[in-house]
Every structure is written in structure tokens, then in C-alpha cells.
Model the fold of this input.
Amino acid sequence: MTGTGYLAMPWAPTARGYCAPRRLVVKLALGEAPERVPTRSDVRAGRAAPEAQLGHGALDRLLRRFGGQARIARLHDAACAHEPGQRHHGFDDLEHTCGVARIFEVALAEHCNVLDAVDALRQLAIVDWAIPHYFCVSEQDAPAPPPPPKDAPRDAEARASTLERIGATRIHEIEPGDPAVVVAVIDTGTAKRHPELAGQLRAGFDAVNFRQEEVGHGLALVGDFSARDIDPDEAHNGHGTACASLLKAKGTVLHPGLAGECGAQPVRALASAMPPGGDKVVGLGAIPDIEFAFKHAVDLGARIVNMSFGTSQTSLSPGDPPPHAETVAYAIAKGAIPVAASGNTATDELIYPAALPGVIAVGAVDADDRPAPFTTRGSHVALCAPGERLLAADIEGYQWVTGTSFAAPLVAGAAALLVSRALRHAIALGASEIRHLLVHTARPWRTAAGEGVGVGTLDVGAALAALDRRLAISTDFEPAALEA
Done:
């Protein structure tokens, strides 16, 4: 979750969330984004030079006043752009109306009060919003699970229990999954050479790109963090590996991943960092890197996007827009299905992207299928899935994991099977249809669960059965409707 905690920020002394010095993100109003500004992909690859101004007099004067010479690049690549150095050409109407084509990353030459600069930019009519360059610190704030097993457990009952609880025993005999249906796992990366995952994953990419000095004092970056590339391998944080294994494990020790034959694309959008005095690394991601990763995964064909991270509303400053709103709207319009963990704060609050409209927000249940005490609640939570003491892959070996982070991939895997099933009948399901199927077939709470935990627990078998009934009805009546 985003938060200052132990991180000192003299450049933004009153900010609630942690942000980088000398960096801002600005979204211009529709029709105001200059086409000539290159994308940061091309700038960082040395294919283009950043612009020093956006071509709007008052805006450019403010940037010079607060931070001297600016370096400006467009955050996203155009979906249809393939030629290096020209990725800022060809944004379509959807990219402009959703706003992803109008977001710019600004690096200032001099230190300034970031919040003062943001506040000044917000006064301009051509600026939809301006925010600091926030980071998302994904800490393990769920209760710690038992120590990881030294050797892989071989208790078949323990391995199968999670799938039995969500109605997924032998589910792949009913629907094996379609390799063309891709689940993007936006996380800390994946240990792709793990015995459970080797040969199971599609090509992915690494969107992390920042420097230690941008993190300031308090967190020490470890591993790869300074260059975007196509290798999403993770070596210091097993979070993304655990999520990927719940979707795509071979079944050597773990139960086969719920996504079956569906594709899984590992996307590394969070780096690894060590807190002062800590003994466990946490995931650290720049919000702009996460935004880029999200859109790029959708543009590469991801149908389901799993997001086991979040930024709480309380960590944002007044006037900040919800993170990821533009990319979520874009993804849904493109037919993708965003799934996100609700959070582990044990409170009723908004955590983004889970709280954004159209996202399937997933809470966690304990071993007795009751809402886990740590799960974040809210009216936006759609349903829950097992999220306590699940066996998953680690960087090496295996681990027990706990948190809504690990409930979300189970729902993402169920969504992938539903999309696969529909495609066999030449029907494309979007986010709203998938949400409806999952919510209306969830197992209702056996006892009073309170508010903000959705309608019940994921039941994959029931969701597939409901879809089959719908497909049968569709087949019976469509020809008559066409004749009429």
C-alpha cells in the first residue's frame, strides 16, 4: 500500500503517499495533448529526446518556475505503434477519450515543493489532473502464515482442499482452458525457471525503471530496478511467483493451476526493496510504471488482468484522482477483465484499483470459509476466495501464503475458464458478464458475514454450469430469433 511510513520527503512534506522528488504526472484535457511529445519508452531506449515544454504557455511557465528545465514524455505507447521512435503516433479515439493518450510524465531539473507545483498546475483549465509521481509499497500486512516448508509437502488432501472449496475439483475435465485466453499477472515478476512454472508461461516484460535516489531514504532497492526490458524474472520477492503458480502450476507438487491451458503472461511492474531493519523484501512500484504495464499488457492481448497490489484512498492527498482509472476504463473498453485484491487492512475502505468501477474486487476467506479477519471490506467487493495458508511456489521451493493477493488469482483463473468456455460457442464475454456469472453463482455465506465482503465465496463449477445453461438457451433460441 502507498504510504510514507519511514520515508522522509522534504520535497513533499505534507504528502500522505510516498512520491519521488522532481517528478510529476499530468493529464491534459481532451484535445489539448500535443502529438509531437515522444513516449517514455522511446526516450528511455534512446530513440527520441524528451520535450522541454508542452506548448501551452501558462503550463510551461509554471513548470519552469517550479523546476527549471523540464524533461517531458508521454506515459503510454499508442496501441497501434510498432516502430521504435514513433510510438507516440497513431493514438486512436478510444485512447484519447479514456485519457491514456493524454498523460505525461514530467521530470524537473531542480528540487521544488512537489505539492505546490501540483497545486499550481491544477488551476489551469487545460489540466484534467496533476499528481506527484507516487510509489506503491506492497507490504505483507496480512497475518504471517506458517514458515515455508523445507521440502515440498505431498499430502494430496492438503493440495486439493483449496480447489474443492471453490468447486474446482476436476474442473479441467469440463473446461481445460483456451491457450489464446491470456491472464496478465502484474506483480513483482515470476521465477519462470521454477519446476512448477518452467515452460508454463508466455513471454512477458519488465516495466520497472527508476533509480535508488528517487526512492529517497528508508528503502534499499535490491535486484533489477533500473532498466525496462522483456525479462520479468524475479529473484528477491516470491509474491508474483506465488500468484502465477496459483494460475499455472504444472502440478508436480502443487495442484495444477486453475487457469488450465489458458495462457499466463508475467508482467514485472514492482521492484523489490528492503525496509530499514527489515528481514523481508517488499514490492515497490512506481504508479506510472504500473500504469504502463497495465495498458501494454492489454495491448498485447491480455483478456484478464490480475492485480494483487493497491493504493488506499487514505494515502492520497486531497484532490488526487484515483490511481489507474484511465487504464481500467481503457482495458474494459477493449474487452479485458480486471481482477484485483481488495487489500489486507482489516478495515472498510477504498483501495485502488480494486475500488474502481468495473474491477472485480476480491476479498479473502479463511479455512472455514468465513471472511478472513484481515480482508479489506467495502461495497465494491464482489466476492471472496480462499486467501489463508495457501500452498504456492516460491523463488526456490514452496511457501505458504496468506492475503487477498492470493485470493485474486483464483478469481482471475475462474474468469479465464469462463471466457474460454464462451469462446467455444463463438461468444465473447466482457467484464460485466463475467462479474455477473461469478457473483450470482458464489456460495452464499453460511453465517452472517457482515457488510462489505461481497455475496459469498467463489464457486467455479457453479459459474461454468450457469454459463452452460446460458449457452444452451442461446443456441435454442437464436435461430428462431433470426428467422423472425
User: Anything to note?
Assistant: Confidence is low (pLDDT under 50) at residues 1-6, 476-484. Residues 19-134 form one domain. The radius of gyration is 22 Å.
